Amino acid sequence: MIPAWLAAVAAGTIRAQHAANSGRFHPSEAMKALEPGTILAEKFRIDGVLGRGGMGVVLAAHHLQLDQPVALKFLHEKERGDPALVARFFREGRACAKIRGEHVTRIFDVCNSVEHGPYLVMERLFGRDFWQILKERRRFLRTRWATHFPRSRSAPARAPQPSPSALHTAARCSPTPR
């Protein structure tokens, strides 16, 4: 049985929902000031936007003093007004900085800008976006879907039956109660 989320990916509905949701975040005036080429805190050159989420935006940047790529995670302007969310954001940064592992993004610093609010300086990861991978595999998923459900998308046409030789072998190998 194919999981529902996998079926939604194959049908393309998850990507459509993601695209619809990503349009609801509009950059604030403070974030518009962080256009590519902007220097932040005399340390970071902004290169562009990596992603947006419900609580903030992640920018690609270059640390000028260390000469290495970094990611800067900022809170949205509406979240910056809530002291509990700001405290949670800083707590997230401190907690993640203590974790070491190859599957965990490193946190280098927790900062607060007067103009742009609190932000985390993180390791910048390079690779493919999750949605790009799903898009590439959508054709494969649709093929698998058609293989499992050839006549309808709700149920298999016929349950697979074991061959007679497999039943004979299973009967020989398994002890029967006497």
In short:
This protein has 178 residues and is an alpha+beta fold. It is globular.
Please describe the topology of this protein.
Layout: H1 4-11, H2 13-22, H3 29-32, E1 39-40, E2 44-52, E3 56-63, E4 68-75, H4 77-80, H5 83-98, E5 107-113, E6 117-123, H6 130-148, H7 164-173
Antiparallel strand pairs: 1-2, 2-3, 3-4, 4-6, 5-6
Strand order in space, largest sheet: 1-2-3-4-6-5
Name the average pLDDT.
75
Kindly provide the name of the CATH class of one domain: Alpha Beta
| Low-pLDDT segments | 1-25, 166-174
User: What fraction strand?
Assistant: 15-25%
Helix content: 25-40%
Largest sheet: 6 strands, antiparallel
The CATH homologous superfamily of one domain corresponds to Phosphorylase Kinase, domain 1
End-to-end Cα distance, whole Å, is 36 Å
Total number of strands: 6
Strand pairing plus helix content: what structural class?
alpha+beta
Measured on Cα atoms, how large is the radius of gyration?
A: 25 Å
Number of helix segments? 7
CATH fold name of one domain, please? Phosphorylase Kinase, domain 1
Named CATH architecture of one domain: 2-Layer Sandwich
Q: Identify the overall geometry.
A: globular
Description:
There is one protein chain. With 178 residues, this protein is an alpha+beta fold. The chain has a domain at 33-123: Phosphorylase Kinase, domain 1 (2-Layer Sandwich), CATH 3.30.200. It is built from seven helices and six strands, in the order H-H-H-E-E-E-E-H-H-E-E-H-H. It has helices at residues 4-11, 13-22, 29-32, 77-80, 83-98, 130-148, 164-173; strands spanning 39-40, 44-52, 56-63, 68-75, 107-113, 117-123. It has a six-stranded antiparallel beta sheet. Mean pLDDT is 75; it is low at 1-25 and 166-174.
